[in-house]
Task: structure prediction
Amino acid sequence: QVQLVESGGGLVQPGGSLRLSCAASGSIFRLYAMGWYRQAPGKVRELAARITSGGTTTYADSWKGRFTISRDNAKNTMYLQMNNLKPEDTAVYYCNAYPGTWPWGQGTQVTVSS
Result:
């Protein structure tokens, strides 16, 4: 069973940047479309961006132009480059297959505040 470990979150000022990483155990990572999901306080978890096994990306409208999803299949790792962060981006960020197939990791907290 695949295990997922997210990292790279933290506290950042509005307009700042962060790079999140998602490390997956198991070589089957490369066969699956993957997604970054986020759960803001008091809200349900939602898919915000996804990437196919071949690298084709899709973003939620609120993320377009600010966030970039990428993956390195050789390293079983997915990334999320987050630029021009806004307070409304504050959430716990999770990765999983798309659709969410594997057990959820612990997520990584992103807090955008001055």
